[in-house]
Amino acid sequence: MNKLVKYTLSLVGLGLVGYNSVYVKKLDDVKAAGIAGNSKFDAGRYAQTFWTTKLVPTAPTAATDLALLLPLLKTDKEKAFTTYSQGLGIGNIRYFLVRGEGRVTGVGENDVMVSLPTGETVHLATEYIFGNAARDASGLIRITEFETTTDLNNVSEQLNDIIRKQVIPSLKTMAKPGNRLRFVGAMELNRAHTHLDSLTLIPLAVH
């Protein structure tokens, strides 16, 4: 009798272990988890949404007037960088979202030269549209939004491609010597080695 009881208890124990080791999930839940785990970040879609819903609507009013920024960079560089620059990293490379207006004084193979009322000349890039200025100058993107640096860098590439296709053609059409331009742009400067004699902007909007 004792053997029979022990045998029965052993079977019950094994049954409980097996029951607790197996669990059932809905097929739809499994499929959804699989899709989420295999989804790939769409940098093109992110960039287009950011451009359309955030950057373009806010840039004209959020941008710092170059008539204010350039004198401040000459007289109090640290204040200018602290107050008006953005950057995802902690290094010396910083980005400014700026606006200005002036007269076109020259059209080169790689840029359009615009003379500002303050006397400075800025270069609006038309050929070499690269880097992170368009992505970082507004300060609207956070690094915590991305799982990898590759995703983050791909957003820069996609934004630069949007500028090449949507902004540069309009700029080239309007950029005739003597014409007046109003523009919004993204500017990269090195905090440790700031050179203001040849300022190049990535154009974000031109009028």
Can you offer a commentary on this structure?
The chain has 207 residues and is an alpha+beta fold. The chain has eight helices and seven strands, in the order H-H-H-E-H-H-E-E-E-E-H-H-H-E-E. It has helices at 2-21, 27-38, 43-62, 66-75, 77-84, 133-136, 149-166, 168-174, and strands at 64-65, 85-86, 93-107, 111-115, 121-125, 180-190, 199-206. It has a five-stranded mixed barrel with strand order 3-4-5-7-6. Helix 3 (43-62) packs across helix 7 and helix 4 crosses helix 5 (77-84). It is globular. The N and C termini lie far apart (98 Å). The relative contact order is 0.17. Residues 3-37 have low confidence and may be disordered.
Which geometry do the CA atoms define? globular
Oligomer, anyone?
A: single chain
Alpha-carbon Rg, integer = 28 Å
Main beta sheet strand tally, sense and closure: 5 strands, mixed, barrel
Contiguous runs where pLDDT drops below 50 for at least 5 residues? 3-37
Number of domains: 1
Question: What portion of the residues fall into strands of 2 or more residues?
Answer: 15-25%
Helical fraction equals: 40-55%
Please report the distance between the alpha carbons of the first and last residues: 98 Å
Total strand segments: 7
Please name the CATH topology.
OB fold (Dihydrolipoamide Acetyltransferase, E2P)
**In sequence order, what are the helices and strands, one letter per element?**
HHHEHHEEEEHHHEE
CATH architecture group name: Beta Barrel
What class would the helix/strand composition place it in?
Answer: alpha+beta
What spatial order of strands do you see in the largest sheet? 3-4-5-7-6
